[in-house]
Write a structure and sequence with these properties.
disordered C terminus; 4-stranded parallel β-sheet; alpha/beta; about 475 residues; globular; 15 helices
Length: about 475
């Protein structure tokens, strides 16, 4: 019977031979590969190691593989969390060479070649011969961390579910609010950040209020909601080029989003947002529901690797790696995906996929005894896209840019392809038909747990239905 690599490494962590190749778990190979992170970088690395003479341990603090580009659809009730976040163990159930460990990584010892973690309160140590770190990034509030209580980011399933509770709960609160000014603040939504996530969130909140909630309420008209999108730069979706950015601006404004360009959020509380315009004028917007889509910072594991290995970090904390994605001075350690700083590559799913696959191919070659120098990553730009609303999106493929219905159809096909599993693709397609062709939103449930997480938004006034129990 095969030995579980996580349990074996835990038992062997004090043995003198724990780093020797013949002291690891037995199976297809004795070369031990630890992969930190089950996102696109980690999962595509696992796939690329299929058939290689290695034993793989995939470790992540969550139990699922997250398709992050569709988080905004969970937050606005189009898709369920299961459709974009299948269980990692189920995705890898046919891979007997892979063990999955749900644990929080607490340290990496480059000299000792071990990864320390905590699994349900129990310390765990995993020894490795090769390491891939695909820990990703998290929301950055640019030093204003107190904003997090009032404006959640959108980087995890927890974030999406909390935002879903805040958004739908805002309409419920407005329905029973007798004070017109307070009611208006419940029906004002502010999205901070004009990148793809911010634009997609703003567009979906408008569609939600104008279409999906039509005739759902008796005391309020959801279509009177105000959606404000604040962007510090002079245009939204700046990475798509001037022409597509201008088209997106027109489409967003035509949809009904109030666009504030050159506007920085300088303060906020439970009931308001203070915005500073380009000329220095400030304005306080009464808004109880805020979404933060303005910035990111790298996982703390990036700094840990840099301090031990002597690597440099970029301005958001990503690790500057060698052309083959390895950590300088440690050819056995690879940093991939959003945590990697290489050739100004953007933090996109496709970068994570290609870098994770590249690192895994290098490890597989070495495990087979190929000692030739590692090849540099040659990234192939497959384009980028962002939705504006139903039947409207922009897409860029090199110098070619398309928008409108054509861009939306391309978005639909590509996202269906990258969703994990046939069942999830079919389910997502059905829900998209319900939401985009019809008016419905299949995922509108607010649980007691989500409502409790949202109580901070209620502290400034208004009322919500009491939590059950």
């Amino acid at each position: 019977m095969d030995t579980n690599p996580a349990d074996q490494d835990h038992r062997d962590r004090h043995r003198p031979d724990r780093h020797r190749p013949d002291s690891g778990p037995k199976g297809r190979g004795t070369h031990r590969v630890v992969i930190v992170g089950s996102g696109f970088g980690g999962l595509f690395a696992v796939r690329a190691l299929r058939g290689a003479p290695v034993q793989v341990t995939l470790i992540d603090r969550t139990n699922h593989h997250l398709f992050q580009p569709l988080l905004y659809q969970v937050a606005t009730g189009i898709l369920s969390e299961g459709e974009i976040a299948p269980a990692t163990r189920d995705v890898l159930r046919r891979r007997s060479d892979v063990s999955v460990v749900m644990a929080e990584v607490t340290g990496i010892d480059l000299a000792g070649r071990t990864v320390s973690a905590e699994a349900m309160g129990r310390p765990l140590t995993l020894a490795y011969d090769s390491l891939i770190v695909a820990a990703g990034v998290q929301t950055s509030y640019f030093g204003n961390d107190r904003f997090e209580a009032f404006a959640p980011g959108l980087k995890s399933i927890d974030d999406a579910l909390e935002l879903r509770a805040r958004i739908y709960g805002a309409f419920e609160a407005a329905e029973t609010e007798p004070d017109p000014a307070v009611r208006e603040s419940w029906l004002t939504f502010v999205v901070v950040g004009g990148g793809p996530t911010g634009v997609e969130m703003a567009g979906q909140i408008v569609e939600l209020s104008h279409r999906a909630l039509h005739r759902n309420f008796r005391n309020i008209d959801p279509s009177t909601s105000r959606v404000v999108l604040c962007e510090g730069a002079d245009r939204i979706l700046g990475d798509f080029g001037r022409r597509l950015s201008d088209r997106a601006r027109r489409d967003v404004q035509r949809l009904g989003v109030e666009l504030r360009l050159g506007a920085r959020v300088v303060d906020m509380d439970e009931t308001s947002v203070t915005v500073e315009e380009a000329g220095g004028r400030t304005e306080r917007l009464a808004a109880r529901t805020k979404v933060w889509a303005a910035g990111m910072t790298a996982s703390p594991l990036g700094r840990l690797l840099a301090e031990q290995g002597g690597a440099e970090l970029d301005r958001v904390g990503r690790v500057r790696v060698r052309p083959d994605c390895s950590l300088p001075g440690h050819p056995e350690v690879f940093v991939v995906g959003d945590l990697m700083a290489l050739d100004d590559l953007p933090g996109m799913a496709e970068v994570a996929m290609q870098s994770g696959r590249h690192a895994a191919v290098t490890i597989a070659r070495r495990a087979r005894g190929d000692d030739r120098p590692a090849r540099p990553l040659r990234y192939v730009d497959l384009g980028s896209m962002a939705t504006i609303s139903r039947f409207s999106a922009i897409a860029r493929f090199g110098r070619l840019g398309v928008g409108g219905l054509t861009g939306w159809l391309l978005w639909l096909v590509i996202h269906l392809v990258f969703l994990t599993g046939f069942k999830n693709r079919l389910s997502a397609l059905v829900h998209w038909a319900i939401s985009f062709v019809g008016r419905g939103r299949a995922e509108r449930t607010i649980t007691a747990h989500q409502a409790a997480a949202r109580r901070r938004a209620v502290a400034g006034g208004g009322s919500l239905p009491a939590d059950p129990g």
